[in-house]
Every structure is written in structure tokens, then in C-alpha cells.
Amino acid sequence: MPSKSALRLPLIRLALAGTSALALVATAQAQEAEQETVSNGDSTALETLVVNGSGGVITAEGYVGTSSATGAKIDTPFLETPQSISTVTEQQLKDRNPQTLLETLAYTPGTRVGAYGFDPRFDAFFVRGFDVTYSGVFRDNLRQPAAVDSIFKNEPYGLEGVSILRGPSSALYGATGAGGLYNLITKRPTEDTLREVQVQYGSHDRYQGQFDFSGPVNENDPVYYRLTGLLRDADTEQVGLADDRAYIAPAFTWKPDEDTKLTVLGEYSRTNSGGTATYYNDPLTGEATDIFAGNPDFNDSVQKQGRVGYEFEHRLNDTFVFRQNARVSTLNIDADWAFAYAPNAADPTLLDSSAGTYDERLTAFVIDNQLEAKFDTGALEHTLLAGVDYTKLRFRALDGRGVSPPLDTKNPTQGRPVDAIDFNTRTVQDQWQLGTYLQDQIRYDAWTLTVGGRYDWVSTDTDTMDLATDSLTTVSQKDKEFSGRIGLTYQTDFGLAPYISYSTAFAPNAGINKETNQPFKPTESEQQEIGVKYLLPNSNTLITAALFNIDQKNGLYLEASGDTAIQVQRGKLRSRGFEIEANTSLDNGISLIASYAYTDVKIIQGPSGTIGNYVSSAPQHMASIWAHYTLPEDGPFYGFSLGGGARFVGSSYGNDQNTFKNSSRVLFDASVGYDFAAIDQKYEGLHLQVNATNLFDRREAVCTAGYCHRDQGRTVIGSLRYNW
């Protein structure tokens, strides 16, 4: 019988890959504020309040991002960042209307978003061949922790954009993985008034209403607000699996003078989905069938989560700026699951099923303190950043196992009542991480040298109790690690910027290696990267390309052990590849993003039978293109806009033993919109848009770590939006 971890999400660690921030608060004075003009997708431009700060806000025009704080924790042009970096801008979000974080990231190079097929419960994804679900997701430049099934759900409508920093990045951010990090940027208050309401209807009886309001609180006070909300009632393509959500995100900014700014960001959401979304795998062939493996009568999952935090900046003088970012976040998930795993011995038309229930709670406090100094030493210009950050996590999990009535293959959608299941185990895990870092960006003429280092201390205590016997097992572990980055960039007068860099990362692994009965060692990685970035003169176009080599050691793997799977640590992975990306938004109404990634991920050391093999579900070739065109005002189709995209995923192996393959596939997306102002100006602000994902409804099998899923089928969503 598969283990619980294999049922829910293969390769998930019973670990908090947490880290980020503490430090003592000093009083301050912040950097001169500047106003960034960001298009809201209509004819009106909004001024978002932006300081040269550390939240990661993206400077962008249309589809082209040109700077953010993601690569250096302070706002830095991408041409000066000696590492591969991409953006998903606010305009892309409006045009593509993604409904999940995975759809948001689907067109970014090197990002593998479909390894687990259709599964609305988790935002699980890989970059450059490495899982970043637990250690690579940040919110406003602060870690967004996760553990087991306690993974924060991210609502794309609440985002201004996403910045993606690829490759090891612990020199500034502490415990992160080999693939890099994804910084989700929350919507912030705007100086200009924004009012938007929207209704949506789509596939699988999807009903959704949402709103977004922002602007000054009154005419006199320097206080600005934003309130974003959403309510959805929806089914999915899987029987017994809902996709309901209520979401509200208040925010306000206080800017008493040009040297001081405080932004408070809040969020609460409640999501109802299911405990499992998988298809039954035939144990004889290993293939995914069309039979839902769960039980519609025992497949509820309710996740409640909330966040509140702030970003404070204050300029001390012409040289120094102090910043402090902090957030408290909580998550509670209560779920039931059932899983059909093998034919019944007496009646093969029936499938024996296991069942379980779990209740998880995750609470995290993150705080990051920074002091920035700008000064010269002779001909050298310095931007020096020093910081101390702290993260405190507490994770509690109750878990119970039982049985579900057999699944009748002649009537697979029939519900089967399940008796109440008692909890069998209780796990409590406390983890704190303290890190201190220093970075210097040294500029001389056209050269920029970036040098940074960081030291982290991590402590993790885990208590596991068997509730039947009241036996308690306690494991304590302490980790400490130095991380660094050095990179050199040269900018030409015509917009070309070649660079070279070396960076490292580490991620502590909570839990016990059941082979050795010892705590897991931290997973460590290092990268060499060389690349070029080209911002075309007199054209809103950015082209980037990179060659990279990443070595990771002490990774965790799932390995079969009897009728379950256990985590073991005895591995080394090597990822080598090439990526190229182009983003443009032109004056003629055309916007385009295109990318190609070649990724060669091999197991250098690992479980028996896998050494020298390719990592499962890691395609060597991926490519994508999305184009959007707003038809001209002087043409017969004025008011219309058209969009279309294609995502190519190359073939990959379905397991680490490389005994069978996933086929290659191309998935197509499309959109069409109409601005009713083209009929009459009295309809200004009214906009209709229809988006289709996986337009031709390809639902092929995709297998990861030996278990097979299916691609999400076609979805079509119509949106009617009104701005005034």
C-alpha cells in the first residue's frame, strides 16, 4: 500500500524548509520615494507608491520588467543582476487571467508546472530540475513557509506580479533550494483612484465575483488604501473535488514625508477542495486509468490561511536607509482522503481502498532588518547592504489512518460512506532560523561587481507521539552554514550586458533518516552561470540567455520499503542547461513572451538502480510562446484584442529508474477580448474577455516518481470587467 506521502504528493518532505528573519529594530529615515507608473490594462495608468525598497515591486512596462528588489533585496536593474531573472508582470496577469500560481508561471523558462498533472490542492513546481515548492516560494521578499500538506495557496488576483530568480540564492535569502526562488508581489495601494469589479463564469460550473479598490483615503492625509476580494463557487473535472474560495486582502500605505513610508499588507482566505485528486493506477501496467482513485463521500479539504505584515522604510541621511519587513502568517488545513490501490482478491471489479484524515496547523513569524549605505571610495561607487533576519515556525499535525469501502469500477463515481477515523499520531515541530548577511554592489564605469555572503543558524525540534500507546519520540537538530555569491556584469552603451556568477545555497531538512536513525543533513548546492541580457535601444524589448551548471548534494528521495515509501538521503544531482527568453510590448499593440529551456538533470549519486539516470518528469526540452494583440483604433475591428499561446513539454522519464517515458506534448491557450468603449464612450471601462487553457483538451498521462497523473483538461472562463 502506498504511503500517505506518496498518496498526497510525491517527494514532499516532512520538513519545514523555513527561514528568513530577526533583528533588533532601529529607528530610521528612508529613501526618497519615487512614483512608478504601472499600466492597469485599460486606458488609465496608475501610480503605485514605490520606494527603492526591499519588497520586490517590479518596474515594468507592459510585459517587460526591467528592475526589482528580488535579485539583490534592494531595487536593482536586471542588467546589473549577475544571475538569471524573469518576471510575470501585471499586464501578463490581466491578459492571460491565470486561476492558479501554476498557470501564472506556465510561460517562464525552465519552470516545470505539470509534473503532478491536474491537482488544485497544491502549487507544486520545479525549476532547472529541482523542486522549489517548499524552499523557493517567497512573498514580498519574505519566506512563505510550507510543511507536508501545509502549503499556502496563492490567489493570482491578489498579485501585482512575480519575480523569478533562478539558481542557488542563499547568500541573501538563507535556506533555499538549488532551483532558485519565486517572489510573489502583493498588490499595493495606488496614488490614483482604482475601482474595478468583475464577474466570471467558466467550465465546471465556475462562478466567481471579484473587486479591487484603491486610492487616497481623503484629500488631505498621506494615507492610501487598497482592498482586493474574491468569492468563487466551482466544481472541477474530478468528481467530488470542489474549487471554492473566499479571499480578502486589505492594505494601506502611510507616507508622512518623502523620507518615510509604511505599508501594511493583510490577507485572509478560505479554500474548499479535496483530500486527493489522483487517478487510479493499474498495479499490473502502472498506467493511469480514467477512474478517480478517491471517494466522493470522503474527500473534503478546508484550508484557512491569513497573513498580516508590514514594510517600513526611513532615510537616516544622504548615505543610510533603514528598512524593516515583517509578517505573521497562519494556516490550518483539515482534510479527509481515500485512495483505491489494488483489485479486491474476491472480486476484481472492486478496488480495495485505504482512507485517512489529517489536521495540520502552521504558524510563522518572519522579520528582516536591513541597513543600506551608498558611498564612494575613489572611483568606485558602492551600494552596501547589511541585514539580520529571523524566522520562527511552529508546525502541528494530527494524522489518522483507516479504510474506505471498495471502489466499484462498474460505478466509479458512486459515493461510499466512511466511518469516522481517529487520529493515530501527533507531530509538533518548532524551528527557528537566524541569519546575518552582507552584500556590496561595486560599480566602476560600465562594470558592476556583486559580492555577498551570509551565515545561518537553524534549530529544529520535532516531537512525534503515537496516540495509541502515548509513546513520544523527540528529535533535535542544529545546522549552520555559510553561503555566498559573486558576480560580474558589464553594460555596453547599446544595452548589452554579459555577466558571470557563482552562488551557493543550503536547505535544512527536518526529520529522521530511517536507514541511519540520524537527523538529515542540510541539502547543499552550488551554481556556475554565464549569461547575457540585452535591453534593445529605443524598443521595449528584453532578451536574456544563460548557461548554467548546478550541483546538489544530500538531497532527499522517496524509496520503496515493503508496502510503503520512506525518505532516504544519499544523493547528488547535477543540472546543466541553457535558457533563453524574450519579452516585448510594442507601440503597435503587440506584446509577446517567448522562451526555450534545455535542462539535463542526472542522478550522480542516489538509490540503487538510479545512478547515472535522468530525474523523473524532468524534460530536457521545454519551450513556450504567448502573443497578445490589441487591434488598432483606425481598423474595422477596433475594440477587439486577441491572444494565443503554445507550451511545449518534451518527453521525460516517468521514474528515476528510467524504465518508461512520458510523451512530449504541446498545450495551446487562447484569449479574445472586447472593449465596449469602441461602441460608445459611455461604455468606457467595460471590458469582456474569454480565456481558454489547454484549448484542444489534451489529457495525457504524466508520471513522476513512478506514479502517474493526467494533465488538466480544457477550461474556458469568460470575464466581464468594469473599471471607473
Describe the overall structure.
- The model is unreliable at 1-53 (pLDDT under 50).
- The protein has 4 helices and 47 strands.
- The longest helix is centred in the first third of the chain and has 7 residues, at 90-96.
- The chain has one domain (4-723): TonB-dependent receptor, beta-barrel domain (Maltoporin, Chain A), CATH 2.40.170.
- A hairpin with a 6-residue loop joins strand 17 and strand 18 (223-233).
- It has 724 residues and is mainly β.
- The strands form 11 sheets. It has a 22-stranded antiparallel β-barrel. It has a 5-stranded mixed sheet with strand order 6-14-15-10-11.
- InterPro entries: Beta-barrel_TonB, Beta-barrel_TonB_sf, Plug_dom, Plug_dom_sf, TonB-dep_rcpt-like, TonB_sidphr_rcpt.
- One of its GO terms (molecular function) is siderophore uptake transmembrane transporter activity.
- Belongs to the TonB-dependent receptor family.
- Residues 80-180 form the TonB-dependent receptor plug domain.
- Keywords: Cell outer membrane, Ion transport, Iron, Iron transport, Membrane, Receptor, Signal, TonB box, Transmembrane, Transmembrane beta strand, Transport.
